[in-house]
Amino acid sequence: MVENTEHLAAALSGADSTDEDWAIRLGFYIHDASRLRRIVYDTALKPLGVTRSQAWVIAYLSRKDGMPQSDLAGQLDLGKVALGGLVDRLEAVGLVERRPDAADRRVKRIFLSGEGRKVVTRMRKIAAATNEVILRGIPAAEVKAAAKTLHAVKANLLKMVGSSNLGDDGD
Fold this sequence. Notes:
Layout: H1 2-13, H2 19-45, H3 52-63, E1 67-68, H4 69-75, H5 80-92, E2 96-100, E3 108-112, H6 114-134, H7 140-162
Antiparallel strand pairs: 1-3, 2-3
C-alpha cells in the first residue's frame, strides 16, 4: 500500500513521468475539468431558468440569429429532434421564435426574442464572473497556451472523427 501511495505522489508531482503518462493525465484532466465546469455552469444558470443545453442554443443564436433550425442543429452537433425539443421549450417561455423562411416556407428560422436577448446579456455576465473564479490564479499567458493546445487537440479529434479508421492504429 505504501508503494502505491508513493507512486501516486510521484505521478502527481510529475517526478519520473513519461510523455505517455502526461498524455494520459491530460485526458483525465480534460474530462474532470469539463464535468466540473458543467456542474458549476448548471448551478450558475439556474436562476435564469435555462438549462445549459438551452443556454448553448441561445448563445449561438446571439451570434447567428435567424438560422434555419436544421443548420442550427448541425452547428450544435445535435439531432434535429433533440434541437426541436429545446426550441419548443425556449419558444414556450418566450425566449425564441420560429419564423418561416421568406424563400422556402418549409424552412423554419429561429430568432431570439427581446426577452431572449435580455437572457443572453445576463448569461454573459454570469459567464464572465464564473470564468473569473474558474481561472483565478492562472496567468493569462497560461490560459492562452492551454486554449491553443485544446484547440489543436480538438482539430486533431475532428480529423479522426472524419476518418474511417477512428481508433484503428494498425495493430
